[in-house]
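Run log, item B.
One chain of 197 residues. Sequence copied directly from the ordering sheet:
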Amino acid sequence: MLLQGKKIGYAITGSFCTLDKTIQAMEDLIKVGAELIPIVSEPIRKLDTKYGAAREWLDKIKGISGNDIIDSIVKAEPIGPEKLLDLLIIAPCTGNTLGKLANGIIDETVVMAAKAHLRNERPVLIAIATNDGLGLNARNLGVLLNTKNVFFVPFGQDNPLEKKNSLVARFDLIKKAAEYALDNKQIQPVLIEYRGI
């Protein structure tokens, strides 16, 4: 399905080392005519890290999308009743967010956006980035891989020798995975060799 004219929520959580990749993915979606509604977790909104100041990231995200950022539970809740989005992408999706989604814990902006969007039986696309995807979060990953209307960007072990439980999505495949998700299909293969692209 073409992405032109689609209203896509683009939710960003606190895997700060992947923010450059997610910015590139946002730009790729804008280039093909998608409208992006940015959504950020509290760590993205508040924390300055070695990867950059929160204000710099927020300015970049707003500048690319051209839309105001949804940055609170109160602002995210109307996504459901107002049927605001065709697709919600969570990229990166941390293990913390993955666990909350799998267990119905709705205590912050991004998980509220996902809950609100899923109530309309519309697709959520997850680009995982977590150090414990094959550890404590493996159970949550399994739950979401089998959840209706939840799809994944292909992912693999980014550093199997030094961080054997770590999983990261191929952010360069977000656009293609989004096309599949809008057709209610999971892009295949979902488990891939990760090459750090």
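Observations after the first pass:
- The beta strands are 7-12, 35-40, 87-93, 124-130, 150-152, 155-156, 167-169.
- The mean pLDDT is 96.
Flagged for discussion on Thursday.
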